[in-house]
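User: I'm writing a tutorial on reading structure tokens. Could you give me a worked example: one chain, its sequence, then its tokens, then a sentence or two explaining what the tokens reveal?
Assistant: Sure. Here is the example chain.
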Amino acid sequence: MSFEKITSVDLIEIVENSIVQVRTKTVILENGEQISSQFQRHIVVPNGNYSGENFNVQAIASLIYTPEIVAAYQATKQAQ
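And here are its predicted structure tokens:
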């Protein structure tokens, strides 16, 4: 009997205020058959550090997080 755990980023969305929402899927396999799966979500904000993120998340964030988007996000946060 062999078990394997596979974790992957399976969904990247851009939501309100240009926040990048990342869904990670963890699958447990027993002898090659899926016996369990679990999802986790986290966000990446325009003025945050995303250097430790998955390559695709980094690529998307670097494209959309222009100085104008970061300034707009910071202004929204200050207004709250």
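What the tokens reveal: The longest strand covers residues 3-15. The helical segments are 55-64, 67-79.
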